[in-house]
Amino acid sequence: MSNSTLAVKAANFLSSRSDALLQLPVLAGLDGFVDTILHVVDTRESADAYERLESMETFGGRIAGAADLSTSFETVPQMVKLGGNGPIFAAALSAYGMPVTYIGLLGAPHIHPVFADLAKRVRLISLAEPGYTDSMEFDDGTLMFGRHTSLREVNWENVLQHAPLDQLVALFQKSSLIALLNWTMLIGMTRIFEELLKKVMPLVRGPRWMFFDLGDPAKRTREDIAYALELISRFQQHADVILGLNLSEARQIGDVLGFGPCEESPEAVGEHAANIRYKLGLHTVFIHPVSFSVAADANGIVSVEGAVVEKPKIATGAGGYCSAGFCIGRMLGAPLDISLQLGIAMSGYYVRTAKNPSVEDLVSFLRTY
C-alpha cells in the first residue's frame, strides 16, 4: 500500500471512529517537567538579530575546541512548555476529547502555571514539584539538561498519599488505557511496578491496554533494566501490553535480552521488535526511528515510512506524540499499519506546528499527507 493510500485510509478510520474516543478513559503518569526550549547563538548581529547554531555536530566541535581553555555560549529561549514523557502523552490524548487522569510531578502546593492549560482538559493529581529541563534544539538533534531533585518524590508511599489504594484501584478499573512512562528517570518506578502487580492489578477486571515507555535506559544498570522488563512482562497477565521504544532504546533493550546488533532498516528493526515481543511475551512492541516506524504483534510485523522534517518547529516531545497516536489506533481496534500511520502523522503535525492536533486537524493533515 502506498504512503498516500495508507494516510487516507487512516484518515477515514479516525474520522469514522473518533466519537468512540470520548468513551475511552486514560490514566497516565508519573513524571512531569517544565521544558525551556533553547537555541544556541552562533553569531549575533544586533540586540535583536542573531544566527543560530544549527548543527549539534558543530556545537560539539566548539566544545571540544575549548578543552583546556574556557568558552561561553549564549542561549535564546524559544518557549517554555510542559514536559516529561507523561504530560506530553496526556496532552496529546486530551486534544482528542479523551477523559484523561494524570498523576505526576505537576507542582506543589499548587499546579505549576505551565500545566494550567492541561488542567482545563485533564484531571491532575500532583505528587510534588516538577523537574526542569533546558532543551537545546538543533536541526540534527536535541541536548537536554535536567534538574531532577523532585523526581525522588515519585515513590509508592507518595502515590498512596495522593491517591489511596481504593482510589487507585478504581482509577485502574475504569481506564481503557494505563500508561506508565519514563521508568529510567524515576528511580522509584520499579517498586511502584512491584506494588501495582501485588495490590492493584489482581483487583482489576476486564480488558484494557497498558503502555510502557522506559525512556533512555543507558544510565541504568543492565540488572535494573532486566528486572524492569521482567515486571513489565508480568503486567501482560492482566492487560494487553504495548512497549514503545525509539531505536536507541530498542538496541539497548535488545542487548540486555541477548540479541545481536540491530541495523537501521525496516526489516532489521521489525525483526528486532518481534524478538523483543516474543522474549517478553507482550501483546505489541512498537519502535519508532525517525525515518520509519515498525510494530510487531501476534499478526506479524508492519513498517510504515516516516515523514522527516528537515527544519522542525519543535523536536522535544515528538516521540510522545508518535506513541499517543499509535495507542489511539490500538484502542480503536485499528490494525498495525493504521496505528503506525496515526502515530507518524500525529508526531509529524506536532513538529511542524508545535501544537496539539485535534481529530479534525489530524484527519485534514492525513488527507493532504
How many runs of DSSP E, i.e. beta strands?
14
Oligomeric form:
single chain
**What structural class is derived from the secondary structure elements?**
alpha/beta
- Stretches where pLDDT is under 50 for at least 5 consecutive residues are none
How many H/I helices? 13
CATH superfamily descriptor: Ribokinase
Tertiary shape = globular
Q: Which architecture name does CATH use?
A: 3-Layer(aba) Sandwich
Estimate nothing, just give the exact number of structural domains. Answer: 1
Mean pLDDT: 95
Strand content: 15-25%
| Biggest sheet record | 9 strands, mixed
- CATH class bucket: Alpha Beta
Distance between the termini: 14 Å
Q: What is the topology, as strand order, of the major beta sheet? A: 6-5-1-9-10-11-12-13-14
